[in-house]
Amino acid sequence: MAHHKYVVAFRIGFQSSLEYRFNFFLSLFSAVFPIVVHYYIWTAVYASSGESGLFGYSYQEMIMYTIIAAVVSKLVITNMEHAIAEDIKSGGLNKYMVKPIAYFGFRICSFIGQRLIYVAISLLVILALTFALNSFYKQHTGLERLLAFFLSLCLSVILSFLISYALCAFAFWLSEISYFFVVTSLLVNIMSGGMFPLEIFGEGLQQLFRYLPFHYMIYFPVNVLNGKIADGLIWQGIAGQGIWIGLMLIVCHLAWKRGMKRYLGLGG
């Protein structure tokens, strides 16, 4: 029954998502405003440029990217950094050190439980948006791309968790971590393509971003669905997501192992 405690952690996360589901719907609704702003901005940019394509995107592809990326970004954001930092600062880790459950195992099982219903709802929203955009712009997204998108989206959620968990280790060294999380979340959102397609930053920065894991969180799954990534490169990208998940597991282990040497356990 060693696995039972992690099932309980999953159930706690799932129940939490049911209790606070209004927050998720509110979060999705909050994505509407930036979508509207980006829609009018890109409409004006394409109209004034007189070009049928900018940064390698047609007008239809850019609008579709903007809308889908806004929904995906709301899904992959973990929003757990402050809770973990509080456990580190207040001594909340103590109870996991004396009980037969690993803190990482508890957090990831709870996170998966929290995200399960969100993934299901977000997929329904994304599928509805894709169908509407395809009908409006007379495009076609095949079933194979939809399945590849679903797989890449699940991997991006896991990758996002691992990146956030690794960043939380800085709480062992920084006395005030809130502003650090604000800055890093903004940078991660930019480098992951949550605000604009990475092509907008130019060839140099785009190549740099491709050597980092962040573009696999939003940019890659959205462009799988958008049709911008060639069929032959989809599974190569999914393999890249898997490799980065493995690497981030190692980074998380090393960062937290070193951070725990500084942990005082005060207050818990």
UniProtKB/TrEMBL annotation:
Report the transmembrane regions from the record: 20-42, 62-84, 119-137, 149-173, 179-201, 233-256
**InterPro entries, per the entry:** ABC-2_transporter-like
Which N-terminal residues, if any, form the signal peptide?
none
Q: Does this UniProt record's set of keywords contain Nucleus?
A: no
Which controlled-vocabulary keywords does the entry list? Membrane, Transmembrane, Transmembrane helix
For this protein, the record's PANTHER family field holds:
SLR1174 PROTEIN (PTHR36832:SF1), SLR1174 PROTEIN-RELATED (PTHR36832)
The protein here is known as ABC transporter permease
